[in-house]
Amino acid sequence: MLVTSIVCYNHHVNFMNIPYIVRKFTGFAVVTATLFLFGLFFGSLLKNPVHAGNERIVTIYHDNQEQIVATNATSVSEVLQRANISVGAHDSVEPGADTKLIAQNYTINVYRARPVTVIDGEHRYVIMSPYQSAKKIAEAAGLVTYNEDIFTLSRIDDFLAEGGIGLKLTILRSTPVSLVLYGQAIAIHTQSKTVAELLKEKKISIGSSDGVSPAVDTPLSAGTTVDVYRNGVQTINEEQAVTFGVQKIQDADQDVGYKEIKEAGTPGKRVVTYEIDLKNGKEVSRKEIQSVVTIQPKDQVEVIGIKRKGFAGNIDEAFAALRSCEAGGNYDRNSGNGYYGAYQFNISTWAGYGGYTIPSEAPASIQDQKAYETYQRRGWQPWPACSQRLGL
């Protein structure tokens, strides 16, 4: 206020005509006030530091609108809180609210819950759900479902006729049946209406020595037992695991070699029937005659990093070119010179990776993962000729 008064009241006065002691005091006051203001400014910076490198650009889709914010928030929930976007108990957020933010750009989707009328046989009720998939809505509602059930999701357009608003989920339940396959009982579900349709659905072929009970034109109902048997031949059944597949989601913000399992895979099961040749009470040979998958495997979902320091190209494109160069892109390749698979691993380098002795016998996903891990440790060195030819 001292500086303001001097300037305001003396803007027509010759400053040099003011006595020396006044000029001295005025100069001291100006300097003191300036230092005080600088102190306030830098003190504020120390308490609230601004680092441009911490700013993230986040695009939020919610309530039929797009909102773009610049923020130094470190989690999805913090971004939404600062943007004054509330999330209800039944709403869904992708990525999850607890997700930590590490990259510079993100997209957040807020899915609002809406009423869904569920029609499950004779049962009818209304739930709140944010999901877009019929099966996901059913799972989130805690319903026990089977792969053979049929889900239909539709919009309710006639409020009076339908007796509700929002969406309608109709579940056509499958029929539980007991299938006895050459002496092995299997609990299954089916939409088939007759025994013949069931055999066709499960890809069960009936040979000249086989029999079926009841007759193939018999209608199916809950609890029906269908028996498939073979006359005059020794058969055995074995339950075996069915390997699950792997779905890979590429993350350009993570380095090559990074892997996060978002959804764990679960193996399925199948019942295999073998025809056994016995001599002197000992098995000398066997032949597979039937195979029925009783539980479908669930794919594993993995997030893998594709960013590589010092490598500016797309890592997946590079590996595709490498496979083409090494083995013509053939994962089953056996070159006959001790090198196998799409990446032509030898036995010592492969080292029984993934539980497979021979690289070419491993699924494509296992071979790809081994190649990624090898590259992470050794770069392109294990493939000198092709990497040089491809300019890697």
Describe this structure in words.
The chain is an alpha+beta fold. It folds into five domains: 2-47; 53-111, Roll (Ubiquitin-like (UB roll)); 114-172, Roll (Ubiquitin-like (UB roll)), CATH 3.10.20; 175-295, no CATH class; 308-389, Lysozyme (Orthogonal Bundle), CATH 1.10.530. Helix content is 25%, strand content 33%. The chain contains ten helices and 18 strands. The strands form five sheets. Strands 2-1-4-3 form a four-stranded mixed β-sheet, covered by helices on one side. The protein has a four-stranded mixed β-sheet with strand order 6-5-8-7, with helices on one face. The chain has a four-stranded mixed β-sheet with strand order 10-9-12-11, with helices on one face. A hairpin with a 2-residue loop joins strand 9 (175-181) and strand 10 (184-190). The radius of gyration is 35 Å and the shape is flat. The chain starts with a helix and ends with a helix. The model is unreliable at 1-26 and 40-52 (pLDDT under 50).
Task: Kindly list the characteristics that best describe this protein.
Ubiquitin-like (UB roll); 4-stranded mixed β-sheet; 18 strands; 5 domains; 10 helices; 33% strand; alpha+beta; 392 residues; disordered N terminus
Order of helices and strands: HHEEHEEEEHEHEEEHEEEEEEEEHHHH
The Rg value, from CA coordinates, equals: 35 Å
Helical stretch tally: 10
The portion of residues forming beta strands comes to 25-35%
Which structural class best describes the helix and strand composition? alpha+beta
Number of domains: 5
Major sheet: size, sense and barrel closure? 4 strands, mixed
